[in-house]
Write a structure and sequence with these properties.
The chain is of the alpha/beta class. The protein has 13 helices and 8 strands. Strands 1-8-7-6-5-4-3-2 form an 8-stranded parallel sheet. Helix 7 links the parallel strand 3 and strand 4. Helix 6 packs across helix 7 and helix 9 packs across helix 10. The longest helix has 22 residues. The N terminus is likely disordered. Bound molecules: zinc ion.
Length: about 350
């Protein structure tokens, strides 16, 4: 556990918004420590200091949760890169690294499981057994190493999310279960996102919502609907990309020449820090309880979001003071203010 005196996730949520930060895999790929394609977090074993550094950067920027980097550290994916034998060590080490950095601040540690690519709704009985075994194995190790709660995320299938929820509840830990939203309005097994969240809440999830796939503009409207019908806590962790009605997910974005931008040509679509700050403000205003960021996330966004939520975080010491720039000075500040005013209107 991160710190014996730290309040748990549910106590924190009772008091107000909890800020999270993710996107470890994307960011560590950009930094040269993870291979795009398989996206297996081998960095946990090969360059543990790189993982700790990113945890630390998110912590300094305001994240209250260190999410153990076990995304895709499951049996199916490790088989793909021939590291199945490292499975247990990779999972344990990821939780240890998250704990080490969480103790440097006042952060919680979340165990992390995700879509497995093994779930098949047409063969639900058989595939559920495989998925459940993967989750039990990963979370068993995580619990032994010490976690405060579990984030089950980027769930494409409600059926798979429900298995995750059951396993988390068996371990008697708070459960945050969030859905991927690649499709227009429903999970791959045909449940409207809002309905799927309601079912998860009815089955005992403590926090439900969406993560990944959608940028602020296309995630917020769905989150608002979820918030309006759900009584438990709601989470929103968008990607910092400019998705819109025509291209609602970052997988659907196209470059000028019509190529799919995901996952390696996405830079032109990045939001700026003010847009992510505005997302945090809007999410808070509609009653979202857990506000974070997913793939594409980086510390400058996390800090801007924290400050938008009225917080001063360790990295705020170096927040921009453009008035002090010898040439740009107040002109740039004014420009940013205008930008924000436009964006809000
Ligand atoms: Zn993501």
């Amino acid at each position: 556990m991160s710190n014996r005196t730290t309040r748990g996730i549910l106590d924190r949520l009772k008091k107000g918004v909890v800020q999270g930060a993710e996107g470890y895999v994307f960011e560590l790929e950009r930094r040269g420590y993870i291979k795009a394609g398989p996206y297996v977090p081998e960095v946990v074993l090969d360059f543990p200091e790189a993982v700790k550094e990113l945890h630390r950067e998110f912590l300094r920027a305001g994240s209250e949760v260190m999410v153990a980097l076990t995304y895709y550290a499951h049996r199916e994916k490790l088989k793909d890169v021939g590291r199945e034998n490292d499975l247990e060590f990779m999972n344990r080490q990821a939780v240890r690294l998250a704990n080490e950095v969480a103790r440097e601040g006042d952060a919680l540690v979340a165990g992390n499981i995700c879509n497995t690519w093994a779930y098949d709704p047409h063969n639900a009985k058989e595939s559920s057994r495989v998925v459940r075994a993967m989750y039990e194995e990963q979370l068993g190790w995580a619990v032994e190493e010490g976690i405060d709660f579990v984030i089950s995320e980027t769930n494409d299938f409600l059926g798979e999310a429900l298995i995750a929820l059951e396993v988390i509840k068996q371990l008697k830990l708070p459960a945050m279960v969030t859905l991927a939203s690649v499709q227009h309005d429903q999970t791959r097994d045909g449940y409207d996102y809002v309905e799927a969240c309601k079912i998860l809440a009815d089955h005992g999830a403590d926090i439900v919502g969406l993560n990944c796939d959608r940028g602020p503009e296309t995630m917020l409207p769905i989150i608002e609907k979820i918030r309006s019908v759900i009584s438990c806590y709601v989470a929103a962790q968008p990607v910092p990309y400019k998705t819109n009605a025509q291209f609602p997910t970052f997988e659907s974005l196209r470059t000028g020449s019509g190529e799919q931008a995901f996952p390696l040509l996405l830079e032109p679509f990045l939001c700026n820090r003010f847009e992510m700050a505005e997302f945090a403000r809007k999410a808070q205003a509609i009653g979202v309880n857990y506000i974070g960021i997913c793939c594409g996330g980086a510390p400058h966004y996390v800090r801007a979001m924290a400050e938008a939520l009225g917080r001063t975080v360790p990295a705020s010491k170096y927040s921009p003071v453009m008035e002090l720039h010898p040439v740009l000075g107040a002109r740039v500040e004014e420009k940013h203010k205008e930008f924000l005013a436009d964006w809000k209107s």
